[in-house]
Amino acid sequence: MKPSNVLLLPGWQNSGPDHWQSRWVRLHGYQRVEQHDWMRPLRGDWSARLEETVADADGPVLLVAHSLGCVLTAWWASHTRHAAKVRGALLVAPGDVERPDVAAMIHGWAPIARQPLPFPALLVGSQSDPYCSYERVQGLGEAWGARFVDYGERGHINAESGLGDWEEGHGWLTQLAQAA
């Protein structure tokens, strides 16, 4: 699969320069799906942007979502006409936008879509994520029909988790691509 057809879906506030997603853009040439407003995310706007990006892709795509990007993926998948273009999704550390403290920061994203995803997915969750309990992340994986990876005590699986280029995560993405 061409690097430009690997679509990175950052979460709220985007992924900073030390985040593994930003490192993957630099290392592998993957495409970040740029949103209009990273600070005040609107579910409809973000979903429309993902829809047009997938529709415009010149072939099949892989999705690589972090945090709110995971919630976006599930919502978008429940409405899109282009799900057949997605060969797989790597979902990492979804944020629980139904939890009152998270919902207060990110409005309009609840409820989380819980239908099985129409493409293969791997969900990587942490036992110590401050934005989603371990029980909740396991439940989302089950609802989405995703294979679940317990990533231990890794926080929000972001730059603060000290993952660097996160080769292990990239290995999972490579497995998804090969299975497709």
Biggest beta sheet attributes: 6 strands, parallel
Q: What is the radius of gyration computed over CA atoms, rounded to a whole number of angstroms?
A: 15 Å
Strand content: 15-25%
- List the domain count as a whole number: 1
Question: Which fold does the CATH topology refer to?
Answer: Rossmann fold
Q: How far apart are the first and last residues' alpha carbons, in Å?
A: 10 Å
The CATH architecture: 3-Layer(aba) Sandwich
Number of strands: 6
Q: Which homologous superfamily in CATH is the superfamily?
A: Alpha/Beta hydrolase fold, catalytic domain
Q: Which oligomeric state applies? A: single chain
Poorly predicted regions: none
Structural class: alpha/beta
Order of helix and strand elements from N to C terminus: EHEHEHEHEHEH
Helix content: 25-40%
Adjacency order of strands in the biggest sheet: 2-1-3-4-5-6
Shape: globular
CATH class: Alpha Beta
Number of helices: 6
* Overall pLDDT score: 96
Keyphrases for this structure?
alpha/beta, 180 residues, 35% helix, 6 helices, single chain, Rossmann fold, six-stranded parallel beta sheet, 6 strands
What secondary-structure arrangement, pairings included, does this model have?
Elements: E1 6-9, H1 20-28, E2 31-32, H2 43-56, E3 61-66, H3 68-77, E4 86-92, H4 100-105, E5 121-125, H5 134-144, E6 147-150, H6 167-179
Parallel strand pairs: 1-2, 1-3, 3-4, 4-5, 5-6
Helix pairs in contact: 2-3
Structure notes:
With 180 residues, the protein is α/β, with parallel strands linked by helices. It has a single domain, classed as Rossmann fold. It has 6 helices and 6 strands. The protein has a 6-stranded parallel sheet, with helices on both faces. Helix 2 (43-56) crosses helix 3. The longest helix is centred in the N-terminal third of the chain and has 14 residues, at 43-56. The radius of gyration is 15 Å and the shape is globular.
